[in-house]
Amino acid sequence: MNRRLPLALGLVPTFFVGLMLSCSAGAAGNAGDTGWYAGGEIGVDISTTQNFNQNGTGVQNSDNTGFLGGFNGGWLFANGLRAELAFDYHYASVGSIQATAANGISSPIRTVSGAVSAATVLGSVLYDFKQPDGFFAVIYPYVLAGVGVADVGVRHENFTTFQETMGSADGSKMVLAYQFGFGGAWDLDSNWSALAGFRYLLTSDVSIKPSGSCTSSSTNVCGISGIYRAPSLFLGLRYKFGGSES
Q1: Cβ contact 66:92 at 8 Å
Q2: What is d(CA 121, CA 105) in angstroms, rounded to the nearest whole number?
Q3: Which of 44, 56, 130, 173 has its CA 20 to 30 A from that of 197?
């Protein structure tokens, strides 16, 4: 697994978003609000596949639609920028697994169990495209990019194939995490705002072994190694302390 891939994917959107923000911050007609804010969010992780490998065997987990929940807080600048720290938890059960040996032969799976989760702490830079008056003074889009850490866990994952290939993984590992996304906000009043958006979370390489004994053999996949990904849709509420408007 290429360890540079998540770093590249994380830095590219961060660079372009940062460039856009630096160019537009002075020119955008923002409403001028400043101050601390805090909020929370709930949502779903879109069903996706996680591509892992171990001992030459490819293991593709197809996760079911998962759950996302968390809270955040930060500072809103007058030019539309926001600096935010967020704590989130992702969880999804494993729906199916496909094991592909080094010779390219895929094996039908007989039994599957397990779940994947991630507890994240991410610092992000956001930009609100908010205007001082008109429609975009109340409802407005935003973009974000962030970096932090994720405690990625694989819980009680086990599978057995008709070709008697067995695999298991159970444990967690702290790794670097990156995210980018976009959404929209609606100011309900001078303090409260409702939010909706999309985020894409990915990590550096995660390597997790089974909790019990792990013996290397042609019929045993001892643990997994790969990049964790979580595309998410969410709804949230934000409270700005002070609620002053200019």
Answers
A1: yes
A2: 39
A3: 173
Please state which CATH class domain 4-23+42-240 belongs to.
mainly beta
**Which tens digit of pLDDT belongs to each residue from 121-174?**
999 999 999 988 888 899 999 999 999 999 999 888 888 887 777 788 888 999
Give the max Cα distance, the chain: 69
Report if pTM > 0.85.
Answer: no
